[in-house]
Design a protein that fits this description.
Number of strands: 4
Protein name: Short chain dehydrogenase-like proteobacteria domain-containing protein
Distance between the termini: 29 Å
Number of domains: 1
Structural class: alpha/beta
Strand order of the largest sheet: 1-2-3-4
Order of helices and strands: EHEHEHE
Helix content: 40-55%
Organism: Qipengyuania marisflavi
Number of helices: 3
Pfam families: SDR-like
Radius of gyration: 13 Å
Largest sheet: 4 strands, parallel
InterPro entries: SDR-like_proteobact
């Protein structure tokens, strides 16, 4: 599973989704098309980004079956745990997973 890191996105969700689709999507699809599964690492963001991220990952998973793609956000130790899990969980694809504290929110979800 290839770890693909998206290093910067705007804080505004509408602008972030635009940058993601214009700048990052072609690169991600190239990796999937080459036959590799992807763990997409997104920068921390608040709850206003959750829906577009879930939708983008779900659509990528549908478009590139049988390849697997999942998106994660969190601290480096959380990312390592996600990577171990996703590498072994062969049926999991199209998911957006957030590590504890990755959104900057203090209230439980």
């Amino acid at each position: 599973m290839k770890r693909f890191i998206v290093d910067e996105l705007p804080s505004d969700p509408l602008r972030a989704t635009g940058v993601f689709h214009q700048h990052w999507l072609p690169r991600i699809e190239a990796v999937l098309t080459s036959g590799q599964d992807v763990m997409l690492v997104l920068p921390a963001a608040d709850y206003t980004h959750r829906e577009w991220r879930r939708a983008a990952i779900a659509m990528l998973a549908r478009s590139h079956t049988p390849r697997r793609i999942n998106a994660v956000t969190g601290q480096s130790t959380q990312l390592a745990v996600f990577e171990r899990y996703l590498t072994d969980a062969h049926g999991v694809t199209g998911q957006y997973l957030e590590g504890a504290g990755a959104t900057g929110e203090n209230s439980p979800r």
